[in-house]
Structure formats: structure tokens, C-alpha cells
Amino acid sequence: MRKKIASLVFGLLLLTSCSPRDFLSRRLATDLICLSDTFKAPQRFVLQTGVQSAEVYPSPEYLALQHHGWIAANSANCPAGVVPPPCSEILLTPFGVETVHTLLPAGDANRSPLSIPVAKREFVAVTGISRQGSAADVEFTWRWVPLNELGAALYSSDVRYQSTVAFKQYDDGWRVTQKVPYSGQTLDEALKNAEPVP
Predict the structure, then answer these.
(1) pLDDT at residue 89 greater than cutoff 90
(2) SS3 sequence of 166-184
(3) Phi-psi bin for 190: left (phi > 0), alpha (psi -120 to 50), beta?
(4) Which residue segments constitute the domains of the chain, with CATH numbers given?
(5) Residue percentage of the chain with pLDDT more than 70
(6) Per-residue 3-state assignment (H helix, E strand, C coil) for 30-86
(7) Residue 26 and residue 21: Cα distance in Å, rounded?
(8) Rounded to the nearest 10 degrees, how much is the dihedral formed by the CA atoms of 37, 29, 140, 177?
């Protein structure tokens, strides 16, 4: 009887010495990715008005804004230093002014360029974990969720993206890598290099 009690106490002590962060499960990886500041940061669209080069207009984003009636673009002469030609003068329409100014804090509405929050990331699922010692690569899918009508025009919530991020095990458990590791990607790089899932 004493041996059973001793082994039960030993087993309980062994279980309590392990933290939930000691084992990189899909649940832990999901929590660590979703709670990171990088993943939670909203996507911002930088709206440049005035005379812009062909790099800015006709980009797909500006054409979408024009299609919705938020901006108008007219041909313009390129000022010195603005390349490549041709240039366009981009203006907010009255409807665009009304729409954009409701999305910005009062002090930011008169600045140029305008940095507008348009979408946030939504985690979909961990699709795989590859561990090697105290390092791991976690593959996951996510999608954009528009925050407003500009975001809905620029980002489809139907498209899913796949990213792979590096994790490292420390003495207090697993963490998402914030610095460039020997192999793998940081979460910021993983989100920037995401590819649509077919």
C-alpha cells in the first residue's frame, strides 16, 4: 500500500513539474501566434494623394478605390524626381473624403499620406508542426477580415494564406521567434511571405 501511495505522490510531483508550455501542441502554437503583437497588428493602407507616378497609379488597390468612387485620377505632368512616368493626380472625391475621414482619428484626417486601418488577421488552423530538438517550424493558415468598407474593397475574406513560423524552446517553455533564427522565419516574415492556399 505504501508503494502505491509513494508512486502516486511521485507521479503527481512529476506532472506538476511540467508546464503546459513545455510541449509544443497545436493548441499552444495557436495561442502563441494569436496573442503575438505582430499577428494582432491591423493591416494599414497608405493612401497617397496628389501627383503620383505609375508605380502608385494604376495599382490594383487604387483602381479598386476608383471603382468604388472614393478617388479620381487625372493625367498630370510628372514633377522633377517623380518617376516612372506617366503621372496621375489622385484626388479624394467628396464621397471618398466622407468615407476616409470617418475611419481616421480627427488629427490624422489632414495628413498626407493617409494611413488607414483596413483589415485584421484571423487565425484559421495549424496545419503542421515540425520539431527538431529545441526548435520547431509551425505551418498555419489565416485570412484577412476587413475592418471597414475600404478593407472590404481591398481584401477578400475568402482567400486563405499559408505561413510557416519558427518557434524556439526556452527554459520557461516554447516561444514564437522574434529574431531571425538560424533557420526558419520570424512571425513578421512568415506573414509577409504568406502564400494563398489553393
Answers:
(1) yes
(2) EEEEECCEEEECCCCCCCC
(3) alpha
(4) 23-43+119-196 (3.10.450), 49-112 (no CATH)
(5) 84
(6) HHHHHHCHHHHCCEEEEECCEEECCCCCCCHHHHHHHHCCCEEEEEECCCCCCCCCC
(7) 11
(8) 50
C-alpha cell of residue 76 = 498630370
Cα–Cα distance, 81 to 189 (Å, whole number):
31
Q: What contacts 45, CB < 8 A, 6 or more positions away?
A: 61, 115, 116, 118, 150, 151, 154
Helix (H) or strand (E) holding 91: strand 87-92
Under 8 Å between Cβ of 146 and 116 = no
Residue 65 CB partners (closer than 8 Å, separation 6+):
47, 71, 96, 150, 153
pLDDT digits (tens, 9 = 90+) for 162-188: 999 999 999 999 999 876 555 567 888
Element (H, E) at 159: none
pLDDT tens track for 6-24: 566 555 544 444 445 678 9
Cβ–Cβ < 8 Å for 146, 137: no
Q: What is the pLDDT of residue 180?
A: 58
